[in-house]
Design goal:
The protein has about 200 residues and is mostly helical. The protein contains five helices and two strands; from the N terminus they run H-H-E-E-H-H-H. A hairpin with a 2-residue loop joins strand 1 and strand 2.
Length: about 200
């Protein structure tokens, strides 16, 4: 069975692989010759510089040099972080300028296309057969076949035509009528007119 210590040693050190982030505002614990100094890099630099001045006033040149070296370490760390921040800021500004230039180019191209569209529309109207003079519509009348299927909407809109008056039907003699009185003879069918 493995112990928990061996397992934890085999894991990679996550703090070293992690991005440190914004060092300028990060709080550090510095173990100096006079004890721990805690604060941001700038605060630690100021504190070590103050301790170095105090050591010089006390004629302790070794302690003064030691405090100055500690201050210099944090000064280098701070200046490196500031250079990286400045480089990131410049990179972002450059990318923003490039994006803005690209947007400006796209906007100019769109405006050119929109300016060209009315001219194309005018050309299209001039060549559009719908805008030229149209031939008269041939009306086949009510009985004519236009070749189109009549829709229910068209049927509803179409006025009903007047029908011709119908001739009354001739009555047939009743079979149960026993009177011998002569009845009116049925009308003779009309003979078609002969073609001459």
């Amino acid at each position: 069975m493995r112990s928990s210590k061996s397992r934890s040693r085999s894991k990679p050190n996550r703090n070293s692989s992690r991005n440190v982030g914004n060092i300028v505002n990060r709080v550090f614990d510095s173990s100096g010759p006079e004890g721990k100094v805690r604060g941001t890099p700038q605060q630690i630099i100021d504190k070590y510089n103050q301790l170095a001045r105090d050591a010089q006033l006390g004629n302790d040149r070794v302690a003064a040099e030691n405090f100055q070296q500690h201050a210099e370490h944090y000064l280098r760390m701070l200046s490196q972080a500031q250079r990286e921040q400045e480089a990131r800021r410049e990179q972002q500004e450059r990318e923003n300028r490039e994006r803005q230039a690209e947007r400006d180019r796209e906007r100019a191209a769109r405006q050119e296309r929109e300016a060209a569209q009315p001219a194309r529309k005018q050309d299209a109207v001039a060549t559009d057969p719908g805008s030229s003079e149209q031939p008269d519509v041939v009306d086949h009348g009510e009985e004519g076949d236009s070749g189109l299927v009549e829709t229910p909407e068209a049927k509803a809109e179409k006025p009903k035509r007047a029908s011709k008056p119908r001739k009354p039907r001739a009555r047939k003699p009743a079979a149960d009528d026993s009177s011998d009185a002569p009845k009116d003879p049925p009308p003779a069918p009309e003979a078609p007119e002969a073609a001459e």
